[in-house]
Write a structure and sequence with these properties.
Blueprint: E1 9-12, H1 20-27, E2 31-36, H2 38-42, H3 47-55, E3 59-63, H4 72-85, E4 89-94, H5 96-108, E5 134-138, E6 150-154, E7 159-163, E8 171-174, H6 184-203, H7 209-222, H8 226-231, H9 236-256, H10 260-272, H11 276-291, H12 296-305, H13 315-332, H14 349-356, H15 360-363, H16 372-384
Parallel strand pairs: 1-8, 2-3, 2-4, 4-5, 5-8
Antiparallel strand pairs: 6-7
């Protein structure tokens, strides 16, 4: 018996941001806490939202205290601001960090304690109250944070998460218009992040027919469109497909879970502050180079998405070409394909592996169990840019 969970309502497609007016009427709110990436204020992206709230005579507390890979300190600051302002609704708009902060703070605002009390690896408290209703609006096509109940926080040398059904959005709005101004590198990193969500969900030990369908659809949209979206940002059709692909990937991985790529990416973000999407991207080919024998049948399906000719080839050879295609995809969108390009040293590999092996929540979903020695080898291969079967 399986289950599938998603936000109460999801609005998507160009112009769906206008549905915010319906939400305000439905909830009958008079005051809102709006958490946004600071760049969105600078370039005027949030102005239509502020204008709508003002036209409905809704009081707004605007907070742009969002940083990439948010720390516990920043998270707790947002919690206190929401507690003090006592809003009826929390709206989060931005990349994954903004959305993670918004959903965690909306729940913490009506529960005791701080962010660290609820962390997966070290927290001891359990949520009692559902918290404030929340609307999550992504400005990137990648994280899927608008449809998950996970909030990620940076620690000194790794990352940890809060995950609970209360963090799930009441409303998610996915409007590709908000992605039109994304620069190439952000488009690339968020797009590879979305692809990684889909692939890891598809090969997860917890995958189901529902999550497989979404994951395959997501990859089928992302692969032919990501290069166009990165290098021709005004290609609205490509942007729209990337947003939809990201949404489907988010729904898939929320229910099936991600695994080894994300587990090993967390220490890269924690220790070296590499952005989340780039951390996933640089490890993606090397993790699958290690685990593909445990998900051979599904990787053969992925070969179809990359349009790799199959005639006269064994399944083994097909999958090896998929791994090569993953490496090519990362490079084609302008992202580093080795850890060396991030100035990481060979001597750092051991501590990376020591932190990576701690991510049991994620590693437990890997189709192939990853030992400490295997994790070390993945980091080494990513450092040297070596695929085993090249």
């Amino acid at each position: 018996m399986g289950q599938f969970v998603s936000p109460k309502k999801i609005y998507y497609g160009e112009g769906s941001l206008g549905k915010l007016e319906d939400i305000l009427l439905e909830l009958n709110v008079q005051n809102v806490f709006l958490l946004a990436d600071p760049i969105l204020k600078e370039i005027g992206v949030i102005q239509p939202i502020l204008g709508l709230l003002e036209s409905k005579r809704v009081e707004v507390v605007l907070d742009t205290n969002v940083i990439p890979e948010p720390t516990l300190e920043v998270g707790n600051q947002v919690v206190e601001k929401i507690r003090n302002s006592k809003p009826q609704l929390v709206i989060g708009i931005g990349g994954g960090s903004a959305l993670d902060l918004a959903k965690a703070a909306a729940v913490l605002a009506e529960n005791e304690g701080s962010i660290e009390d609820y962390l997966n690896l070290s927290g001891s408290k359990k949520f009692i109250n559902k918290g404030l209703p929340k609307v999550l609006i992504p400005s990137t096509a990648g994280t899927g944070a608008e449809v998950t109940d996970i909030s990620v926080f940076s620690l000194e040398d790794t990352k940890d998460v809060i995950t609970h059904e209360f963090l799930l959005a009441d409303y998610a709005i996915v409007d590709s218009v908000l992605t039109y101004t994304l620069p190439p590198r952000v488009t690339a990193a968020s797009g590879i992040d979305a692809f990684t969500h889909a692939l890891e969900a598809y090969t997860s030990k917890n995958a189901t027919p529902l999550t497989d369908t979404l994951a395959l659809d997501a990859m089928s949209r992302i692969v032919p469109n990501i290069r166009r979206a990165v290098w021709n940002g005004e290609d609205k059709a490509a942007r729209d497909q990337m947003s939809l692909g990201s949404l489907f990937a988010g729904l898939s991985f929320y229910n099936a879970g991600v695994a080894g790529v994300h587990a090993l990416a967390y220490p890269l973000g924690g220790l070296f502050k590499i952005p989340h999407g780039e951390s996933n991207a640089v490890l993606l080919p090397y993790v699958y180079d290690q685990i593909w024998p445990a998900c051979l049948d599904k990787m053969v399906k992925v070969a179809e998405i990359f349009k790799i000719p199959s005639e006269g080839k064994t399944e083994r050879l097909l999958v090896q070409e998929v791994i090569e295609s993953l490496l090519d995809l990362v490079g084609d969108v302008g992202l580093p394909t080795t850890l060396d390009e991030y100035k990481i040293q060979r001597s750092d590999i051991k501590i990376l592996a020591e932190n990576g092996i701690k991510q049991k929540r994620l590693l437990n979903r890997s189709p192939k169990p990853l030992t400490f020695e295997m994790i070390e080898q993945i980091y080494l291969n990513a450092y040297e840019g070596v695929l085993k079967n090249r």
